[in-house]
Design a protein that fits this description.
With 346 residues, the protein is α+β, with helices and mostly antiparallel strands. It has helices at residues 2-23, 77-84, 94-97, 104-129, 171-178, 243-254, 283-293, 305-308, 325-337; strands spanning 29-39, 43-44, 47-48, 50-53, 63-72, 90-93, 136-143, 159-163, 166-167, 186-193, 196-203, 205-206, 214-215, 219-225, 229-232, 264-267, 270-271, 277-278, 297-301, 318-322. The chain contains 9 helices and 20 strands. The strands form 6 sheets. The chain has a 6-stranded mixed sheet. Strands 7, 8, 9, 10, 11 and 14 form a 6-stranded antiparallel sheet that branches. Strands 2-3 form a two-stranded antiparallel ribbon. A hairpin with a 2-residue loop joins strand 10 and strand 11. Helix 4 runs parallel beside helix 6 (243-254). The protein starts with a helix and ends in a 9-residue tail after the last helix.
């Protein structure tokens, strides 16, 4: 009887220990919570978010806020259950944020590239809306991964001008000129950074897709050039979802009058060079973030309307449905002149 009791006690203690340890083990989930909002018409750390050179800009008021989502990775069972009970947060599988097989560094690089692409597309969409035509195109560096041949030599936003003295005006030309040397050979890259022309020598390496083709290990994009320069400075935010609000800010600065009428207007959405607005993730948390910032209007990509409406309606900003940049501008203009105006809604 004594031995049986001892066995029962030991088993119970072990079970309790395993239970406690299990509660604190990592689980494959991530918490999404409302993140900071940033006024595209304002400044971050004393530096204006959007600056425009080469064309007159106009004073404005109010705020055009881009919204974000904060992620909390490496949850344990206790924290996951705690966050799941909080209606302002969402607990989702890690695979929705970081696909299986990809590293945190890869995801970060992809998000950084997506943010840079969204800035280029927002600029193209805004200037197309204002009928400002491009004057040409340039190959720009998107990202330079750690350990690549170009690390510490090229940087994001560098404009690539020549390879071994040959001008390049397309990504295909860049690839062709670099591919003329054998992997392991050096190439001289001429580039423009912050308005200054420079050059550097980079030792190539084999492409992972073709060991006989030389690469310098950067991602690039083809960026239109215009008779003016639009610069967007925003760090610590990744992904493409700020595109719509970047475009709204650019249009507001380049047109007379106050687009917002002094209101706080928030929103989200990807955008392409034609001004088409696409869906994003974390819409409910972004609406909640806008509410906390005092926004009275929230611009919602049409495809996100159903989820956005799940936020408690009595406390949410007015949800305005948009399919294009033109839609967003039209609705904001209508609400500026008449707060009771009928505009597309979710």
């Amino acid at each position: 009887m004594v031995r049986r009791t001892q066995t029962l006690v030991v088993t119970s203690v072990l079970a309790l220990v395993l239970l406690v340890v299990g509660l604190w083990l990592p689980v494959p989930f991530v918490t999404l919570a409302p993140g900071p909002v940033t006024d595209t018409l304002g400044a971050v750390d004393g530096t204006r978010l959007i600056t425009i050179e080469g064309r007159r800009t106009y004073p404005t008021s109010g705020r055009l806020e881009l919204t974000t989502v904060e992620e909390t990775p490496r949850l344990n069972l206790v924290s996951a259950l705690h966050d799941w009970l909080d209606s302002d947060q969402a607990v989702v599988p890690t695979e929705l944020i970081r696909p299986r097989g990809s590293s945190e560094q890869q995801v970060q690089q992809e998000n950084t590239q997506a943010m840079l692409d969204s800035q280029d597309q927002a600029t193209a969409a805004a200037l197309a809306q204002l009928k400002i035509e491009p004057t040409g195109a340039a190959v720009t560096v998107g990202s330079v991964p750690d350990g690549s041949p170009a690390a510490d030599k090229l940087a994001a936003a560098d404009v690539l001008i020549k390879v071994n003295g040959v001008s390049v005006t397309s990504q295909e030309q860049l690839r062709t000129e670099i591919g003329k040397v054998r992997p392991g050979a050096s190439v001289t890259i001429s580039y423009r950074r912050a308005g200054k022309d420079e050059s550097t020598t980079i030792v190539t390496r084999p492409s992972p897709d073709d060991p006989n083709r030389a690469i310098i290990g950067v991602t690039t994009s083809l960026k239109n050039t215009y008779p003016l320069t639009v610069s967007i400075r925003l760090s610590d935010v990744g992904g493409p979802s700020a595109g719509l609000m970047f475009a709204m800010g650019i249009v507001d600065l380049l047109t007379p009058g106050e687009l917002t009428g002094g209101k706080i207007i928030a929103g989200t959405g990807t955008i392409d060079e034609k001004g088409v607005v696409g869906p994003i993730g974390g819409i409910q948390q972004k609406v909640l973030g806008a509410r906390e910032s005092g926004a009275t209007i929230f611009l919602v990509p049409a495809a996100n309307c159903t989820d956005a409406k799940a936020v408690e309606r009595g406390k949410a900003p007015r949800l305005v449905r948009v399919n294009t940049l033109a839609d967003a501008l039209s609705s904001v203009e209508a609400l500026r002149t008449n707060p009771a105006a009928t505009v597309p809604s979710c």
